[in-house]
Design goal:
The protein is mostly beta strands and 181 residues long. The chain has 3 helices and 10 strands, in the order αβαβββββββαββ. InterPro entries: A1-microglobln, C8G, Calycin, Lipocalin_CS, Lipocln_cytosolic_FA-bd_dom. GO terms for molecular function: complement binding.
Length: 181
C-alpha cells in the first residue's frame, strides 16, 4: 500500500524565529521600512505607499498589541491588532474574521535597537516586513532584509520601500480600527 505524500511544507515552517526573543525589548515604536509580498493590491498601488509607524505593547507577558499609524487619503488612522502567542516562542497568530483569515506571524530576526524582520503568512502566501527604530536603516540591514526575502522565494520585483516622511503619531477617536481582540 502506498503512503499518501506528506503535505507540502508551508513557507513559514522553514523560517526560524529569533532565538531567545525578548518581548520587552521588542516593545516600543517602529517604522515600516520595507515589505516584500506578491500582494496584487500592493503591486498596483505601490506608488501610493504611505509612511507607516507601529507601536508594539506587550500584553499579559506573551501577546503583542500592535497599533499601526498610517495615512489614508490624508487622514491619520490607527489600526489596532493583537498578535496571540502560537505554539513556539517568537511565533504569533493574528486572527481575522472568517474562515482561513488567520495570519501566522514570526519574529525572524531583530537586534531590538535598529531593525526587526517579521514574516507573515496567510494561506500559502508569505510576506516579509522590515521595521526600523528610525525610518532609515543601514545598507547592511537592507541587504540582510533582501537576503531573507530571497530565502522565502520572493525577489526585488515584489519588494517595496516606504516613504521616510509624513508619519502619523496619533489618530482621533473617529479614525481607529479595532482588529479582533
Amino acid at each position: 500500500r502506498r503512503q499518501r505524500p506528506s503535505p507540502p511544507q508551508s513557507p513559514l515552517e522553514k523560517v526560524a524565529a529569533q532565538e531567545g526573543l525578548s518581548l520587552p525589548e521588542l516593545a516600543g515604536r517602529w517604522f515600516l521600512v520595507g515589505m516584500a509580498s506578491r500582494c496584487s493590491y500592493l503591486a498596483e498601488h505601490s506608488h501610493r505607499l504611505e509612511a507607516t509607524a507601529v507601536t508594539v505593547t506587550i500584553v499579559d507577558g506573551q501577546s503583542l498589541a500592535i497599533s499601526t499609524f498610517r495615512k489614508l487619503d490624508g487622514t491619520c488612522w490607527e489600526i489596532r491588532q493583537r498578535y496571540l502567542p502560537a505554539q513556539a516562542h517568537g511565533r504569533f497568530l493574528l486572527k481575522g474574521r472568517g474562515y482561513g483569515s488567520t495570519v501566522e506571524v514570526v519574529v525572524g530576526e531583530t537586534d531590538y535597537s535598529t531593525y526587526a524582520i517579521l514574516y507573515y503568512q496567510k494561506g500559502r502566501s508569505i510576506s516579509v516586513k522590515l521595521y526600523g527604530r528610525t525610518s532609515q536603516v543601514s545598507d547592511a540591514i537592507a541587504d540582510k532584509f533582501e537576503q531573507r526575502v530571497r530565502a522565502v522565494g520572493l525577489n526585488e520585483d515584489v519588494t517595496y520601500y516606504f516613504p521616510q516622511y509624513g508619519f502619523c503619531d496619533s489618530a482621533d477617536e473617529y479614525h481607529i480600527l479595532d482588529g479582533e481582540l
